[in-house]
């Protein structure tokens, strides 16, 4: 009687580069999907715990701790984001910080295994907690440094955001500025010079806004002489400066119609806050209400000014 040994399936096998690469790519994609889509409650996702699981996988098989295997995991994250999100270059920073967490925890655990420090489980658990804390801090530092040019915020506020908000929710939180602009006394232009002139004014005004905003945000006509501007990844100060640039540009640029020179002014209300990609519509609507309130104050206080709740008084 012959006893045939039962072969045990192993997802990873030492020396099998292609097999291991495919497995890492598939697992990263699966965990990324689970972490991004499944939430225990709205404020708590499974995203960052699964980064810890990925780190455990690399630590379990010492021979997986190679640059090319980590690179495959990173590429899988980028591919998933490219297909399911519109983050663009921001994805490079987010996922590089993910890999910083995974690599740090994995290498520290592997180091302990080599030194024989994992004999007592309670001690190992405490050490693992410290490793995760160190990795989270390094991850936050990398993310904050990489986001300075993207978010237009100083390093320390970004570090706090990366270490607290993003690590607890799994959702990227970004600044968002919303503006409402209303051309002053536009009705008198239509009444005195005709609707053709009014249409030309709207066209020139829209081009002026679009030129300043560029590809940083979106410009839309809300109706009549009112326009809206939404600019993500711009902090309150930069948003206010952009609004003032629009206002001053309109004030200083004469408009010619049938050999007559007209000077226009605009009143602006600015709403600034923070938004996530999952609640972007709700966040945008809240800032629209804030911008509308500030626009009303600009018009009430004499027009040709920018108002914001952020600083308690308008900028003239």
From TrEMBL:
Keywords: GTP-binding, Membrane, Nucleotide-binding, Transmembrane, Transmembrane helix. The keyword GTP-binding applies. InterPro entries: Diguanylate_Cyclase (IPR050469), GGDEF_dom (IPR000160), Nucleotide_cyclase (IPR029787), Rev_trsase/Diguanyl_cyclase (IPR043128). Its cofactor is Mg(2+). GO terms for biological process: cell adhesion involved in single-species biofilm formation; negative regulation of bacterial-type flagellum-dependent cell motility. SUPFAM superfamilies: Nucleotide cyclase. Its EC number is 2.7.7.65. It catalyses: 2 GTP = 3',3'-c-di-GMP + 2 diphosphate. Pathway: Purine metabolism; 3',5'-cyclic di-GMP biosynthesis. PROSITE patterns: GGDEF. Residues 174-311 form the GGDEF domain. GO terms for molecular function: diguanylate cyclase activity; GTP binding. CDD domains: GGDEF. This is diguanylate cyclase. It comes from Shigella flexneri. The lineage of its organism: Bacteria, Pseudomonadati, Pseudomonadota, Gammaproteobacteria, Enterobacterales.
């Amino acid at each position: 009687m012959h006893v045939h040994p039962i072969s045990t399936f192993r997802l990873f096998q030492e020396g099998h580069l292609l097999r291991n690469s495919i497995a890492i790519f598939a697992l990263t994609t699966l965990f990324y999907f689970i972490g991004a889509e499944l939430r225990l409650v709205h404020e708590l996702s499974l995203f960052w715990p699964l980064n810890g699981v990925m780190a455990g996988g690399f630590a379990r098989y010492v021979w997986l701790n190679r640059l090319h295997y980590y690179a495959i995991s990173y590429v899988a994250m980028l591919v998933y984001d490219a297909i399911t999100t519109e983050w663009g270059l921001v994805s490079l920073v987010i996922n590089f910080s993910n890999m910083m967490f995974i690599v740090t925890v994995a290498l520290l655990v592997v180091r302990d295994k080599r030194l024989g420090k994992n004999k007592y489980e309670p001690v190992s658990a405490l050490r693992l907690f410290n490793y995760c804390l160190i990795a989270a801090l390094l991850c936050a530092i990398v993310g904050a440094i990489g986001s300075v040019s993207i978010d237009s915020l100083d390093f320390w506020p970004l570090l706090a955001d990366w270490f607290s908000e993003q690590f607890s929710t799994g959702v990227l939180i970004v600044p968002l500025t919303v503006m409402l602009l209303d051309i002053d006394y536009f009705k008198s232009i239509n009444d005195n010079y005709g609707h053709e002139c009014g249409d030309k004014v709207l066209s020139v005004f829209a081009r002026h806004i679009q030129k300043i905003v560029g590809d940083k945000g979106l410009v839309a006509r809300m109706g009549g002489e009112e326009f809206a501007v939404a600019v993500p990844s711009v902090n309150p100060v930069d948003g206010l400066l952009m609004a003032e640039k629009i206002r001053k540009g309109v004030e200083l640029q004469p408009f010619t119609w049938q050999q007559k020179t007209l000077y226009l002014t605009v009143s602006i209300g600015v709403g600034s806050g923070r938004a996530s990609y999952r609640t972007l519509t709700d966040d945008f609507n809240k800032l629209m209400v804030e911008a509308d309130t500030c626009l009303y104050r600009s018009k009430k206080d004499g027009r040709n000014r920018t108002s914001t709740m952020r600083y308690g008084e308008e900028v003239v």
